[in-house]
Amino acid sequence: MRVDVSRLSLCAFDDNPQSLAVLSQILMGFGNKQCDKYTDLDEAVAAIARSRYELILVDHDSISRAGLKITKAIRANEEGPNFTAPIVLLSVSTSELSIVEARDNGANFMVAKPLSPSVLLERIVWLARNPRMFVNTPAYRGPDRRFHIAPLPQGVEERRAENLRMMQTPERDLGQTEIDSLFT
Amino acid sequence: MTSPVFRPPNRLLSVISNPNAPLFDHLVLKAQQRVATLKPELDVELSDAVDRILAYRSCSEEDLFAECLQIGSQAASIAEIAAFIGREALGKAASGLYDMVELLVERGAWHTGSVMLHLAAIHTLRSAVVEEGAAAATLEQLRQMRLLLARTDAPQ
To answer: ipTM above 0.85?
Structure first.
């Protein structure tokens, strides 16, 4: 699998300078040269409100709750440059409560610390390959949290059965030339 | 009014759209090599961080409780650094201590005795000569204790 993160504009926050140094080395190992790094929460929030990033990596723990504060600030600012940006929380805290809180505040992913370069890169690739719908409601702002497609309960008929059958038949897919021909 | 559910532009498209990009495994290897260059610096930092957290062993119960967030934060830092430089057992003991503070933050439960036991384990495991089996046994006992406390403190 070929991966290019060299041109990504990144923002990384970690209030622990050693942890940020490790993250920084990992990102440089990935070939990235466009990462703004912050150890101060307020500076990070200000930068995120000002500049557009393609990915935001934020340290989070359930004691300082810094990651949640940043995530909330991003998702609350509908006019901000990073309202829909992917946010990955990096966390030493992997309790269920902590993960659910992160998800329900609009984070895309949580990666457990200590960071593994392969896990971090896998998540970045996953986000790139699987862009999710974005939900903007008063109760929740963030990527669509629904990952699973559950089967219908027994006895309930799929209303779109006919459409789904048509879509699953390869010959129903038109090539770009055929699509264009329908417009001209 | 805009739709409450929409598809935003994929900001990460460049990650997968370059056919000449380096291979995944190559990037991971480069990252691991770069992190390895930090080892001397992290060794020193780990030693200092362990010294700082072990100083809490002489605190009174009241002072220990008052400093709990600081202890949690330092434990998280030790857990992370230790894992990076191959001191997994020490890292796991510190991670367990972090869990104890998290239990306080999430459920309001504080167990001074258990915190002290974790500090004692960190003190023992900071020595690189602890036998692997003994370290594993210590960590397992701490883990069992945390499980028991988590169950005891679980909301009814």
So the answer is: no
Range of the domain at A54: 10-143
Q: Is the dihedral of CA B60, B62, B65, B67 positive or negative?
A: negative
**Containing H/E element for B6?**
strand B5-6
Q: What is the pTM of this model?
A: 0.81
Strand partners, A90: A59, A111
Asked whether residue A148 is assigned to any structural domain, the reply reads no
The residues in B 123-142 lying below 8 A from A, measured between CB atoms, are none
The domain made up of B24-153 has a fold known as: Four Helix Bundle (Hemerythrin (Met), subunit A) (1.20.120)
Q: How far, in Å, CA of A124 to CA of B15, rounded?
A: 8
Q: Distance (Å) from the C-alpha of residue A106 to the closest C-alpha of chain B?
A: 14
pLDDT class for A172, splitting at 50, 70, 90? very low
Q: Give the E-state strand segments of chain A in sequence order.
A: 10-13, 35-38, 55-60, 87-91, 109-112, 134-136, 141-143
Chain B residues with beta carbon closer than 8 angstroms to that of A128: 10, 12-13, 15-16
Interface test with B, best of A11, A20, A30 (most B CBs within 10 A): A30
